[in-house]
């Protein structure tokens, strides 16, 4: 037997999809229903402005109410309303006659916005929390009667003549037993604050009490009285929806405090206002950044037509700008079918590129307009610029003109300025320019002072991402290397092939080496004797630049975990021209030679912060003993 046919998708498949898969977070039902009410309210305003509705608009605010005893939540608007035929067209179609089409469209992420707009999918999120939903509605067209629609989440519904007298729609949700949490004032207020805070039509949620001035008493003291007022939960004209020309600095700062009440004032901000080739508005603030990256992230809020969507904006905003704060609003960013998260497409990439360009242009403008102010903010701005130069090639090209390097004397240079500053004195025998840097000027001061004796400049690179930035600079700058100030003795940091004559003979050097080998007695130390200037340190302890850099990157999670576990090897350089070298050799007792050598070595270890525990205790006791002699 042979039979051909079509597999039918039944209407009862719709509700499980909505309840189980479509919305992962049940609280979104309120966002969807309030957004629908706002849309209906805006449509009646639009029809009125076009002259297609000639009646009185009246107060078109949306109201949200709940009744804990009746276990209901009501969303009421005075928008365009619906007739019975429109209910059948816009409400029933998706769940019933449009089921097959819905499931087909649901598979294709690109059609997500179309599904929501065409089929009113957001309305059905109500069944995540309600055992029954009622619609009481009356169209703005006088010839249409009021209608009532009731559905219990099954495939059955009922449409009857309604008793609503005024234009608009009431959605009544009978909350199911699993969703009683939503019959709580603070819970509902929290959801409204999160998703509806900036909707363009006033949202009323009950009332609130406020203390207001009420004259003075007989002694002239101010008196107050408590008044009850409507609790309007939203700001219908958020700052990003206003033209930048109409705003002042205090407006931007006030809005920042509204978004982040416990944050310090931002450094500056960028107002986005694009209408072609995509629609994008928003305000991005540059905060004062702390060293903890994760604490700073996820502070940008994404809106679509003033409806909050998410604060996960990693595809819209470049990774290096995830530390910014603020708001982005775009109806052109594709969302998944539940409007809960982003879908990646060409528009997202264009918006991402536009934001990168706007930030680069703003930073360049600030640098050129007021360099002194820019330098004062660099400790905060620098983290964005460096992060961007590391991660975004196009940003790097723009940023190399306004990226700054700071030296140990707190002087600032652009990349080109610094090259010209150090090239004459810090070029080695192979014609490579060497940038010397410090990651901790306090601990590395002895090494910095040694460098300064040679008139070398030392950069301060103590930021949270400077280890990575150093690598980026070496990749981008021609014939340039960066070396930490304590990575080697100064003559080897910048090797100019200039040799100092030793005051010790080869035999004396051999004897001195034996003394230090016994005094140090460690396998992880590579001992060298070198002829340095007499005023250099008697003993220098260094870790090779490569080894130290890998360990530093491993410590901050740079994907070098294996390097972080490698044993630490240090180079110990004894300056044979320092007076202490001769003093050790002249000591009559072997015990005294060992004591002086150990003391000189421990001083070098102490300068690197490597002396601790019993070694530190012994050093202190030995110092007291030597001072007392």
CATH architecture label of the largest domain: 2-Layer Sandwich
- CATH class bucket of the largest domain: Alpha Beta
Mean pLDDT over the residues:
83
Adjacency order of strands in the biggest sheet: 5-4-3-6-2-1-7-8
Rg estimate, integer Å: 36 Å
Low-confidence stretches: 1-11, 95-103, 105-120, 336-343, 558-564
Largest sheet entry: 8 strands, mixed
In total, the number of strands is: 21
Morphology call: elongated
Q: What is the count of DSSP helices, taking H or I runs of 4+ residues?
A: 22
In CATH, the homologous superfamily of the largest domain goes by the name: Histidine kinase-like ATPase, C-terminal domain
CATH-defined fold name of the largest domain: Heat Shock Protein 90
Distance between the termini: 113 Å
- The percent range for strand residues is 15-25%
Number of domains: 4
Assign a percent range to the helix content.
25-40%
Q: What structural class should be given to the helix and strand makeup?
A: alpha+beta
Textual characterization of the structure:
The chain folds into four domains: 12-205, Histidine kinase-like ATPase, C-terminal domain (Heat Shock Protein 90, 2-Layer Sandwich); 239-369, Ribosomal Protein S5, domain 2, CATH 3.30.230; 403-493, Rossmann fold; 506-628, Four Helix Bundle (Hemerythrin (Met), subunit A), CATH 1.20.120.790. Helices cover 38% and strands 20% of the residues. The protein contains 22 helices and 21 strands. It has an eight-stranded mixed sheet with strand order 5-4-3-6-2-1-7-8, covered by helices on one side. It is elongated and about 115 Å long. The relative contact order is 0.06. Belongs to the heat shock protein 90 family. This is Molecular chaperone HtpG.
């Amino acid at each position: 037997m042979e039979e051909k046919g079509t597999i039918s998708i039944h209407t009862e498949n719709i509700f499980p999809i909505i309840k189980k898969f479509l919305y992962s977070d049940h609280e979104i039902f309120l966002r969807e229903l309030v957004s629908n009410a706002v849309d209906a309210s805006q449509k009646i305003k639009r029809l009125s402005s076009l002259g297609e509705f000639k009646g009185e608009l009246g107060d078109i605010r949306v109201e949200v109410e709940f009744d804990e005893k009746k276990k209901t939540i009501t969303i009421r608007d005075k928008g365009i309303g619906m007739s019975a035929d429109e209910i059948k067209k816009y409400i029933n179609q998706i769940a019933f006659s449009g089921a097959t089409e819905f499931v087909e469209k649901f598979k294709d992420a690109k059609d997500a916005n179309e599904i929501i707009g065409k089929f009113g999918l957001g309305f059905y999120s109500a069944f995540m929390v309600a055992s029954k939903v009622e619609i009481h509605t009356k169209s703005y067209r006088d010839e249409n009667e009021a209608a009532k629609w009731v559905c219990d989440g099954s495939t059955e519904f009922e449409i009857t003549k309604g008793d609503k007298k005024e234009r608009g729609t009431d959605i009544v949700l009978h909350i199911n037993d699993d969703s009683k949490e939503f019959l709580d004032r603070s819970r509902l207020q929290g959801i409204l604050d999160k998703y509806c805070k900036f909707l363009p039509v006033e949202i009323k949620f009950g009332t609130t009490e406020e203390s207001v001035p009420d004259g003075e008493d007989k002694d002239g003291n101010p008196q107050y009285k408590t008044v009850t007022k409507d609790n309007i939960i939203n700001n219908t004209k958020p700052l990003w929806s206003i033209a930048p020309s109409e705003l002042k600095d205090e407006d931007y700062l006030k809005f920042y405090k509204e978004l982040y009440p416990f944050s310090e004032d931002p450094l500056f901000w960028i107002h986005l206002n694009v209408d072609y080739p995509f629609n994008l508005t928003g305000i991005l603030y540059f905060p004062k950044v702390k060293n903890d990256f994760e604490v700073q992230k996820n502070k940008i809020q994404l809106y679509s037509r003033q409806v909050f969507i998410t604060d996960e904006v990693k595809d819209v905003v470049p990774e290096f700008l995830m530390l910014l704060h603020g708001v982005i609003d775009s109806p052109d960013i594709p969302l998944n079918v539940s409007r809960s998260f982003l879908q990646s497409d060409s528009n997202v990439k264009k918006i991402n590129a536009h934001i990168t360009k706007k930030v680069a242009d703003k930073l360049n403008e600030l640098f050129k307009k007021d360099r002194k102010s820019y330098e004062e903010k660099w400790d905060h701005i620098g983290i964005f610029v460096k992060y961007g130069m590391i991660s975004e090639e196009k940003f790097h090209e723009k940023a190399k003109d306004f990226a700054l390097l700071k030296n140990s004397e707190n002087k600032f240079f652009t990349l080109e300025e610094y090259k010209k500053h150090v090239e004459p004195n810090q070029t080695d025998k192979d014609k490579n320019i060497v940038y010397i840097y410090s990651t901790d000027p306090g601990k590395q001061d002895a090494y910095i002072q040694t460098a300064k004796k040679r008139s070398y400049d030392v950069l301060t690179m103590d930021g949270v991402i400077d280890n990575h930035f150093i690598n980026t600079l070496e990749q981008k700058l021609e014939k340039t290397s960066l070396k930490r100030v304590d990575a080697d003795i100064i003559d080897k940091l910048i090797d100019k092939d200039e040799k100092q004559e030793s005051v010790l003979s080869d035999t004396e050097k051999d004897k001195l080496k034996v003394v230090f080998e016994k005094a140090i007695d460690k396998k992880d130390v590579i001992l060298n004797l070198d002829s340095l200037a007499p005023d250099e340190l008697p003993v220098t302890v260094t870790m090779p630049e490569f080894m130290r850099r890998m360990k530093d990157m491993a410590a901050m999670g740079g994907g070098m975990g294996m390097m972080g576990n490698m044993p630490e090897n240090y180079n110990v350089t004894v300056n044979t021209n320092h007076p202490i070298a001769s003093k050790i050799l002249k000591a009559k007792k072997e015990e005294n030679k060992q004591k002086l050598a150990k003391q000189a070595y421990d001083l070098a270890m102490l300068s690197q912060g490597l002396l601790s525990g019993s070694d530190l205790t012994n050093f202190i006791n030995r110092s007291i003993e030597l001072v007392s002699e």
